[in-house]
Amino acid sequence: MADTTGVVTYIKINKQAGEGSDLCFFGLRPQGSTQVELFILWWALSSAQPPPTAADWVLRNVCIGMLRDSFLRGLPITVATDDVSAIVTKVQLGSGASGI
Amino acid sequence: MESSLPTGRPVFARFKDLTDGGAADLPATFRTMASLLEDAGFDVVIEFHIRRGKAFHTYSLRVESAKSSSAAEPAADAHVTILTAEETWAEIAAGRLSPLDAFGDGQLRLRGDLVLGSRVLKHLAGTPGRVEIC
Fold it and tell me: Which of B100, B29, B39 has its CA nearest to residue B65?
């Protein structure tokens, strides 16, 4: 796993599921870097997986809320991914939760 | 409506074969990629972090004023940075896997100027398809 900490620079949500573009991407500028990295919060392929449940949407909204706070207030967030994957498995706003 | 795969995902462009029919080693794919970008009409510096086993190996290519070079070293002024596994890069370099499909499948990370990255994919495309995600 790889943790990346930085500030959100943009959030893009697209609901064109029929064109394979039901997705939420966001850009994160890691601390100490000049390059923005593109991360995937979700990218649903309409006919390849079941539609999101209400619980999925609650979780997505919580994560988007943290991304929005980072974007609007410049707060650092930490996202967890596999070391060669852009698909986010965990989002953390603020520090002090290591080991959880 | 653009064409799409049965999964619903759009068809993304794949690179031309950068492996000389499978004969090229990893550094040679970056040399080929750099030389093919010489006539692209724009300058670009790309850094690659390729995971082999548990370790990452860094390569870079540079195209400036229609001249290209590549090296097994980082590029501090890279416009685009790509992180992926060696086996994934082998598929991308052979033109069997679109870098955008690899990104969507969780096999590749992208940093930097993604507009420039799309221009690179467009110039090196060996198949029809989209060169940007959305």
Answer: B39
